[in-house]
Design a protein that fits this description.
This protein has 39 helices and 34 strands. By secondary structure, the protein is an alpha+beta fold. Strands 1, 2, 3, 4, 24, 25, 32, 33 and 34 form a 9-stranded antiparallel beta sheet that branches.
Length: about 1250
């Protein structure tokens, strides 16, 4: 079938070329519409539920808001996990869904649950969904820099909130623009408690009157003189005077008004804030964070945002400019440039391979033309399947190039061989068709095996799956495109380009040189087969201790080009102290010559995607291009002794200076930023967002302490902190305290309330309004919106005694303490004693709040004119009692932030490790042993119902390791099945698979030399290597087997010497195509290995095992496979001859071989079972002993019967293998 397609395409070149041209045009259109990003979205599908309940403590928010939401959503369909965060006045609930869940379906399900949950939440509390953005949505950050010094922070924040934010939010693809830093302007009404008491006005009255004075209304429509008029009442507050002139009540017989300004001071001030922004160590600033909508083209969206900011430059306040604080387009462009360079280098290397091996320039044009077309065609399914171009998807294309060109190379080499050996005047097209038919089966199965070997990557889950599935997809797309072109486009081109003189292998200098080099090695291998096999086994075994020493990590750190500095400190940090500390830190960071800008954020931005407490700082450090980094000395072998002239000659080859590395730079930053009470952590912006939103842990490793009581959780967490600090490789350990917050607890005394006719609600309204100062309304000033706040002055709330003196209004009711009389409201220097002494021993009750009347002298007498007679009596119908007389006011400890997962409270232990000292897997293994030892000896006590959960990147590492235990054997099994379908012989399949352990040994050696650890990227490279190694074995076996079958069909296989001659023909004479394929694959991978720049870290770790494995696989299989194949054919010939001479002897040989094979199978199964099930040591040792016994018994029986079989078949004393080889080789 494939041969017919090839012949058809070769005869219809114009039609094929036209079809390929149309497909290439579609591919170019797809490239223009391809989405671009740095890395795939690694976060789990999740929805954030954000609820604001300002003024409430974290405990109150947890009990009344977060916990009801978490408990309601934990059982929702497809929900994998629910995490809640309760902060001051805010609740964040992260609903994590199962992988593959459509994000908009998830949002609709959460909305359904929220609609049914509203009745269970406090009045006025309305949850909302966070932006439809992913974990990598923070794509652009900016700050407003005032170069003139004339713009206040509240003015800049107003411009950001109501002008710039809305303008940028209109850009297509932007999900949200979050403001950060500065002050939100607020109308602050600071009431004087003495004036309130003098006038008999309560805070509630002030609030009510201001609310009633801040509204616009509509009066429908009126008609006058045939015209229609819209009726509207304009009452919105527009300035401070509108509040000051608001009447509270009248006084005296003339009805003189009591205005707000009579009892309060009205001014502009800052609203309460839970975050700040610092810029470059120069002081506070205002900025914004642009969050890109999920699924959008990040590069295009950020480009449009920057264009919009440029358009708005003229509308900025005078002296203000927008500075970029973080821009992901740089990372995207650098990553794509890195892989573009690698792709071009691969194409050049592959073309050079063809030219060098074939000495035919036109032949080199075939892969040069077909590779770019195959790559371009792969972008069509990427656009159709909405796969963006990222480091990983482009990396899949880069890996595929070396493998896909293999088919074309084999086809070109076969065509050259056919044309070189053809007589003059032969039909060129017919010869090309014959060559294609000869090698097509091998090409088809080799491509199929390479593709099948990579299929298990599609089964990866979690972050590993989201990271590497795009790579697997694009690699498959390129291989399918190349396979399609190899049977359609390539035959049409071969007829055009394969013209002129075609050199035969005997005339080709490279082929002659390869044959001369290879012959002695084959001679040595076949002359000493046992030594050859021993060397091969030693090479494989030498990799075992190296593999055990490599260590494990989930993923290598992707160099994003920027640094995120995330220090944390203990609770109770004030906003002013946070500002001071962040400014000092930023100033130090800005002093590094590699730093371009510093964007320091303490606390949270105005976004549901940022639940950071004030004690957590996120400082984005933009770095200059690497070319501008400082140079460090690098001593060379000649540095200490070479004279200056010689040193100058050697420096271009071995330079004595080098750039500082990112790891060294962050280490220097860490040393410079050591402050008491602060724990440092360095990461990168995208990585940090993915980690925090995926696991809640911002460090590579973390421990979650889960239970039901925060105090017990903190005890365990603090003890863990002390236990883990001494573990080797620990950079920092911090248990985030959940009991270090300070609360002013105001507990109403119900007996005292009853004496004054008060309720708990009366006291709490005073706490909420006078003490806390809850917003009471919002002004509407065009597009601007500002809140209005009413509260006591700062000095009336500055300590506990003053708080206890806050006035709670009471009314005169029967049985209650007497309200103040008219005489009490005068300016007299004496006060009637209204103190009551309850019989129960409780504190004396003073109905007027515990302050002597002499303090009333601070009230302006003019302001109190008219407070006599009837007006005073009206005002005095309400009295006051101090808060301390009806409530217990005290300071207690409590959580500054409450976390829960799945309904259980949780505390976090953050662990930052030094990757230069320890690998992730080894560190966690030792840390777990430390914790287990502490649990065993009682140094760490876990209460009943409490447990630990190791999380962070380690959680993904464990998940990946468990998956690899399944998919790596599955890949091997799939390759075995395909090999068996091709060879129809299990022995040949096993011989082909001999190349796999040799390849794995080479991969381990190169990983060890490069100091790489086992990671997901390395394992993906190993999976791909298995297919490539099998392919090299296929090429060898196919040529050896063809030569053997040709001799056998001609009756020329009589003894061992004929077998050796056949194998020499299949190996030595066909060394060129085998080395061409391996060299082409290496040429396609080496540019990835020496690549630098963003994204190179991941690509290098995928390419390294493939490069090392291909080298050792090619070298060892060229030696080992001929020896093993010779042994097998010798035994096969022996059995065939014995079958016709002695059936009983044949049965004995087969029986011994069967016992030995069973033993080896059991031994393999027993060893593999240790990776999947926990088996008791005695049982495992017993199984190993039985397996080894079967192997020994079978081998002994076979060796006992084999001499008799040899004497029966070759009575003339058949020469041993190594004695026959010299004569064969010399012939």
């Amino acid at each position: 079938m494939i041969g017919r397609i090839i012949e058809l395409c070769a005869r219809n070149r114009l039609a094929v070329l036209a079809g390929v041209a149309i497909a290439t045009g579609a591919a170019l259109w797809s490239i223009r519409h391809l989405k671009l990003d740095a890395i795939p979205d690694l976060g789990d599908p999740q929805v954030i539920v954000f609820t604001e309940w300002m003024g409430r403590s974290p405990v109150l928010v947890e009990d009344q808001v977060t916990y009801p939401i978490v408990s309601a959503l934990v059982g929702a369909p497809k929900v994998a996990d629910v995490r809640g965060y309760s902060m001051f006045g805010m609740s964040f609930v992260h609903v994590v869904f199962q992988e593959g869940t459509d994000p908009y379906w998830a949002r609709s399900r959460v909305l359904e649950y929220m609609n049914s949950l509203r009745a269970r939440l406090p009045e006025g509390v309305t949850p909302s969904l966070g932006p439809d953005a992913s974990s990598v949505g923070w794509g652009f950050q900016y700050t407003l820099v005032d170069t003139s010094g004339r713009n206040a922070l509240d003015e800049l924040r107003t411009f950001q909130d109501f002008t710039l934010r809305y303008a940028i939010g209109q850009v297509p693809g932007v999900a949200e623009v979050a403001s950060v830093g500065g002050f939100q302007r607020q109308y602050q009404v600071t009431v004087d408690p003495e004036r309130l008491r003098a006038y008999g006005v309560t805070v509630e009255e002030v609030i009510s009157r201001i609310r009633d004075s801040n509204a616009d209304v509509g009066g429908r429509v009126l008609e006058f003189a045939g015209r229609e008029y819209y009726v509207q009442g304009r009452g919105y507050i527009q300035d401070l005077g509108a509040i000051e002139r608001t009447a509270l009540r009248t006084r005296g017989p003339l009805g003189a008004p009591i205005l707000v300004k009579d009892v309060a001071t009205v001014r502009f001030g800052p609203d309460i804030r839970r975050g700040l922004l610092e810029w470059n160590g120069d002081g506070e600033a205002v900025g914004g964070i642009v969050i890109v909508r999920q699924g959008e083209n990040v590069l295009d969206v950020i480009g449009r945002v920057k264009q919009k900011i440029g358009e708005l430059a003229r509308s900025l306040p005078a002296g203000v400019k927008v500075e970029v604080a973080y821009d992901r387009t740089g990372l995207i462009e650098r990553s794509i440039a890195t892989l573009k360079k690698a792709l071009v280098e691969e194409a050049i290397v592959v073309a050079l391979v063809v030219i060098v091996f074939l000495f035919h320039f036109r032949s080199a044009l075939l892969p040069i033309i077909s590779i770019p077309i195959a790559v371009a065609l792969s972008f069509i399914p990427m656009v159709l399947l909405d796969i963006p171009a990222t480091i990983m998807s482009l990396g899949g294309i880069a890996i595929a190039i070396g493998a896909t060109v293999d088919a074309e190379i084999v086809m070109i080499e076969a065509s050259h061989r056919k044309l070189a050996g053809a007589p003059p005047g032969a039909d060129r097209d017919r010869l090309l068709g014959e060559a294609a038919r000869e090698v097509t089966p091998a090409i088809f199965f080799s491509l199929l095996i390479i593709a099948a070997g990579f299929l298990p990557v599609f089964t990866l889950t979690g972050q590993a799956g989201r990271l590497f599935r795009p790579l697997a997809c694009t690699k498959t797309f390129v291989m399918l495109s190349a396979a399609l072109l190899s049977v359609t486009f390539a035959p049409a081109l071969r007829g055009v380009f394969l013209r002129g003189r075609i050199r035969g292998e005997a005339e080709h200098p490279v082929s002659r040189a390869l044959t001369r080099i290879y012959k002695p090695f084959v001679f040595l291998a076949l002359r000493r087969p046992r030594s050859t096999l021993a060397i091969g086994l030693l090479a494989v075994l030498s990799a075992v201790p190296l593999a055990r020493s490599l260590g494990h990590e989930f993923m290598p750190a992707l160099d994003e080009g920027d640094v995120l500095y995330m220090p944390t400190t203990f609770p109770n940090l004030s906003i002013e102290e946070a500002k001071r500390q962040v400014q000092i830190q930023d100033r130090i960071l800005r002093g590094f010559p590699e730093v371009a800008s510093v964007f320091g954020k303490a606390g949270r931005a105005e976004s549901a995607t940022d639940p950071a407490p004030l004690t957590m700082v996120e400082t984005t450090v933009r770095l200059k291009p690497v070319e501008d980094w400082r140079m460090l000395p690098r001593p060379r072998w000649y540095s200490s002794w070479a004279p200056d002239l010689l040193s100058r000659a050697l420096r271009p080859i071995w330079p004595e200076r080098r750039r500082i590395t990112p790891a060294e730079l962050t280490a220097l930053m860490n040393d410079a930023l050591q402050f008491p009470g602060w724990t440092n952590a360095f990461t990168m912006p995208i990585k940090a967002r993915v980690d925090m939103l995926s696991t809640g842990i911002r460090t590579p490793v973390g421990v979650k302490v889960m239970g039901t009581d925060l105090a017990e959780i903190e005890k365990v967490g603090v003890r863990l902190e002390a236990l883990l600090k001494p573990v080797g490789g620990t950079r920092s350990v911090l248990y985030e305290r959940n009991q270090g917050g300070l609360y002013i607890d105001i507990v109403p005394l119900r007996d005292a309330l009853g004496r004054y006719g008060l309720t708990v609600g009366d006291v709490e309204r005073t706490i909420e309004s006078a003490v806390g100062g809850a917003p009471i309304g919002t002004t509407v000033e065009g597009r601007n919106r500002f809140s209005i706040n009413v509260r006591y002055p700062q000095d009336a709330r500055s300590d506990l005694e003053r708080l206890r003196g806050v006035l709670v209004p009471i009314a005169a009711v029967d049985g209650a303490a007497s309200p103040p009389s008219a005489e009490t409201m005068t300016l007299s220097q004496s006060e009637p004693d209204h103190t009551q002494h309850p019989s129960d021993g409780s504190p004396p009750l003073r109905p007027v709040g515990g302050r002597p009347a002499v303090q009333w002298q601070s009230v302006d007498p003019v302001a109190l004119q008219g407070l006599t007679g009837e007006g005073v009596t009206t005002a005095a119908k309400r009295g006051f009692v101090s808060l301390g007389q009806v409530a217990d006011v005290r300071i207690v400890g409590g959580p500054p932030m409450v976390r829960d997962e799945g309904g259980l409270l949780v505390g976090y232990v953050f662990i930052d490790i030094d990757p230069s000292q320890r690998d992730l897997g080894g560190y966690v293994g030792e840390a777990k042993q430390v914790v287990q030892a502490a649990l065993a000896d009682g140094r760490l006590k876990m209460p009943q119902g409490y447990f630990l959960k190791w999380t962070g990147q380690y959680e993904e590492l464990e998940r990946m390791a468990a998956r690899m235990r399944i998919i790596v054997p599955a890949a091997l099994l799939l390759i075995v099945v395909l090999l068996f379908l091709h060879f129809r012989n299990l022995i040949e399949v096993l011989i082909v698979l001999l190349s796999v352990p040799f390849a794995l040994a080479g991969s381990v050696w190169l990983l060890w030399l490069l100091d790489y650890r086992f990671s997901t990227a390395v394992w993906v490279g190993v999976i791909a290597l298995v297919g490539l190694a099998a392919q090299t074995g296929i090429v060898m076996i196919v040529y050896i087997d063809n030569a053997y079958q040709r001799r056998k069909s001609a009756g020329r296989i009589r003894d061992l010497s004929d077998i050796i001659r056949a194998h020499m023909e299949g190996t030595v004479q066909r060394v060129r195509p085998k080395l061409m394929t391996v060299t082409a694959m290496l040429g396609g991978l080496l540019p990835l290995l020496w690549a630098t720049g963003s994204g190179a870290e991941v690509m290098k770790r995928m390419a390294a095992p493939m490069v090392g494995g291909l080298i050792t696989s090619a070298l060892l299989t060229l030696e080992i496979i001929p020896v093993v194949y010779t042994y097998w054919r010798q035994e096969q010939l022996l059995w065939e001859r014995v079958a016709g001479l002695d059936a009983a002897l044949l049965r004995a040989l087969r029986r011994s071989a069967w016992v030995q094979g069973t033993g080896w199978a059991l031994l393999l199964a027993t060893g593999a079972s240790a990776f999947y099930v926990d088996v008791d040591a005695p049982i495992q040792l017993g199984a190993l002993a039985i397996s080894a016994g079967l192997v020994v018994i079978g081998a002994a029986g076979y060796l006992r019967e084999r001499p008799a079989a040899r004497r029966l078949v070759w009575p003339a004393a058949e020469p041993v293998v190594h004695a026959e080889i010299p004569a064969v080789l010399s012939s």
